[in-house]
Structures are given as C-alpha cells and as structure tokens.
Amino acid sequence: MDEKANGPKLTKGSRPIIDWPTNPMVTPLLTDLYQFTMAYAYWKAGKHQERAVFDLYFRKNPFGGEYTIFAGLEECIRLISNYRLTEEQIDFIKSSLPGTCEDGFFDYLRGLDCSELEVYAISEGTVVFPKVPLLIIVGPVAVVQLLETPLLNLVNFASLVTTNAARHRFVAGKSKMLLEFGLRRAQGPDGGMSASKYCYMGGFDATSNVAAGQKFGIPLRGTHSHAFVSSFTSPNEIIEKSLRSCDGSRTCEDFVGLVQAWLNKLQWSPPLRGVFGDTNQSELAAFASYALAFPRSFLALVDTYDVMKSGIPNFCAVALALSELGYKAGGIRLDSGDLAYLSTEARKLFHIIEKEFNVPGFGKTSITASNDLNEETLDALNKQGHEVDAFGIGTYLVTCYAQAALGCVFKLVEINKQPRIKLSEDVTKVSIPCKKRCYRLYGKEGYPLVDIMTGENEPAPKVGERLLCRHPFSESKRAFVVPQKVEELLKCYWPGTSG
Known about the structure:
- InterPro entries: Aldolase_TIM, N/Namide_PRibTrfase, NAPRTase_C, NAPRTase_N, Nic_PRibTrfase-Fam, Nic_PRibTrfase_pncB, Nicotinate_pribotase-like_C.
- Pathway: Cofactor biosynthesis; NAD(+) biosynthesis; nicotinate D-ribonucleotide from nicotinate: step 1/1.
- Keywords: Glycosyltransferase, Ligase, Magnesium, Manganese, Metal-binding, Phosphoprotein, Pyridine nucleotide biosynthesis, Transferase.
- Its cofactor is Mg(2+); Mn(2+).
- This protein has a 6-stranded antiparallel β-sheet. A 6-stranded parallel β-sheet has the order 7-6-13-12-11-10. A 3-stranded antiparallel β-sheet has the order 17-16-20, with no helix packed on it.
- It is about 35% helix and about 20% strand.
- The protein is α/β, with parallel strands linked by helices.
- It contains 14 helices and 21 strands.
- The two termini are about 30 Å apart.
- Among the domains are: about 240-370, Aldolase class I (TIM Barrel), CATH 3.20.20; about 435-495, no CATH class.
C-alpha cells in the first residue's frame, strides 16, 4: 500500500514496523465526525491529555447462542501502529469543522500518534462472553476517542462472522470439510475479504476467494460452474484428446474415446443395467474436457441436467478413464435437489463400481454439497443421514444472515484514575466502571468454569482458593468456585511508552 494513504509509519526506538491494515480504506478518517468534534472540545478545554481508560465489549452473544469468538485484533493493532494524519487529511478535517476552530488544534493533530497508548486485549480467536472487555485502551482521552469508531468497525463484523463460522463447524462436525464460497454474495469487496479471513479463523478449511488466498495464505478450492457444462454441445468439440498417464510412462491418444468406452461398460454392467441409460453427451464432453485440463484434481458439478441419469454416470465414466491412467478423481459437487438422498444414492453407486470394476477407493469418492446451506440445513442433513464429505457455504455464512451485527460498544470506564459509569434505565446498557483485570477459572477436569473481572488493584484469584463470583447486575446469580487453574485473559498487545 502507498504510504501516502495513511501517513508515515511510526518507528519508535527498536519497535518492529507493523504492516498497514489490510484494507486501504482503514485510515484515521474512517471514523464518525463527532469523534473529531469531541477531540476539538477536549483540546479547547485543555482536557485532551487526560489519561482515560475505555472498554470495548459486547452485551449479548449473537445468533441466540451462548458464546462468541473474538476476532479483528490484528487489524486494530495495525491501525494503532500506523495511526498518523496526513496534511491532506488534516485539511479535509479543517474544512469539515466550523470555521471558528482554532489553528492550534490542527497543529495538535499534525503531531498525533498512538505512542502514548496502551492496549490490552484477549487473544484473537478466543471464546469470549458478554460484558468482559475484548480490548482495554489506555491513553490520552482525545486520541482514544478518535479510535472508537474504527476499532468497533474492525472488531464487530470480524467477531460476528468468525462466530458464525465456528457455529457451522460445530454443526457440521470435525470430520467434514467446510469451504467458504461467499465472495459473490458478500457485502462488497471488503465484506468478501474479511469474511474469507475470519471464516478460516472460525474453522473453515478453504475458500474460493483467490484474493484472500493470496493475501492471507488460505487454501483455495473450486471447480467449474453450470456455464462450463452447458457451453459444450458434443464430444466432437474437443480438439486435443491425448493424455499422458500419471506416471508418464504412456500416452492415451484418445481420452474421449476411453471415456466413451467406460460409459458403455457402466451401462451394460449387470449390477448397473437399467440404472444408467443414455446420458447427456454435451455434459460428458464438458467433463472429459475438464479432466483433460485437470487430470489430478478432476471434480465435476453433476446437476446441470439430471444428477442420477446423467451427471453421476458421466462423472463415473471420466473418473474410471482417469483411474486407468493412474489418476484419482477429486469427486462430485451437488448444487441442487435433495442433498441427503442424492449423496446417499451416489455413494451406493460408487461402492458398486468399486466392487464391480475392482477400483480400490472408488467408494470413498468425495461428495461436496452446496446450494444456500446454513446451520439449519446442515442440522437437517445430519438428522436425515447423508454421505456428504464437504460443504460449500456462501450467502448465509458471509452475510451473517441470521444477525446483522454483534453490537460491540466502546465505553469510558476511568479518567485520571477516577472510575466512570454510564447509567441507564435499561440495566443491560449500564457500564462497569474502573480499569479491570479479567481471568478464566478452570475446574479439576481442565474445563473453564467462569470468567471473572476484578479491579486493577484487587488481588488476583489463586489456585485452590475458594472465591465468591457474583454477576454484576443480577444479585441472585452467584457461586463459590475453587479454581484449579487461573488464566489471565487480557494481555498487553501495544505497550506505548510504558515499555
């Protein structure tokens, strides 16, 4: 990224230079106007250097669930590391504020950076719960205030989509491959890139998003579309028909003819007679052409015409031709219809073919399913019984269709070492004052029991010591805990000038 976009990098002492935020739109101007009006008012009142503590947290777990996965911390630290206003940005701020604002404020903005901030955070990817601070930002009140909106922007969606991905992983189970296919339906380019990154963090195995693969090192997966299949009319369109064997020892001069021969064998095989009839020859041509291009990773979309009458037999013919040359087909993808039934029937046929033609492993040919899948459809498939090995999930995953936002907030809890509280008639909106330390207490079996918050100067919980834990807003919710392990959740991710 061009440095001019965000201003010069900070190089304080021997501190390593941290890369810019992934999205070049993340600059000091990615904030609400009232952050700059407050910053001016703080400066005008001489309060801008007062030491403040802000908590970033959320009030309720998303999707009607019981947990959240924290994400977005890396991007927050990148922003803080590189936070500096350019002259062009300062000129724009000056033109956006009333003309009565004094020039000294803009001189103040010219020297602004985050070197005096301290950032404490829970590690990215951790299971977190409401009210417990995900980040604690300590520093001059005007600077911290300017960071409120961009930090919320970087954490809210990241944590929401990571949690959504983790929930899909939980329903699908550990043994299934999960593929993120949401780029075309995501909320713009950044929504697509962020979703790919945080779905991978949330437990997905791969993405179809090539840019995310390049940027974040996420494994890529993908095959062809219905358009590729329907673009063919007959096998006669295929000009180059030769294919070398996997070990390079021989060449099949007419791979298309070999495919046709295998299709004929399938149609006349006693166990399959009457099951496989005449198939769509344009589809067969598309599969053969794709296999010639990608013999080591041939995976076919089999529902362009008819899954059982055409797609499956055509795939099997091509897969068996590849097997004769030493290759192993990647599998099939189902994108419509009754996925439980079709996957089960396909698996039965694969096992019959393995036995009939003595092709080891053919019965385990991979089956991928897509078609607007979500948590509920995965759960329904599990209850019906299916033979799907991998799920390609898009719209409901990357848009977080079931819930629009996580609802993180950013609240002042201390200034000049004096606690501050936000009161409300809605008890869920009351903030918890003072700078905090947060701990996760574990029981005898090694499982976490409860997260607790204490004041910064209160004694830390000790292993084996009986502790009364109380809910901050519900007096009836309290319990004695004897922790067998104590983990401090908040770690310093940006030490500022404190070292």
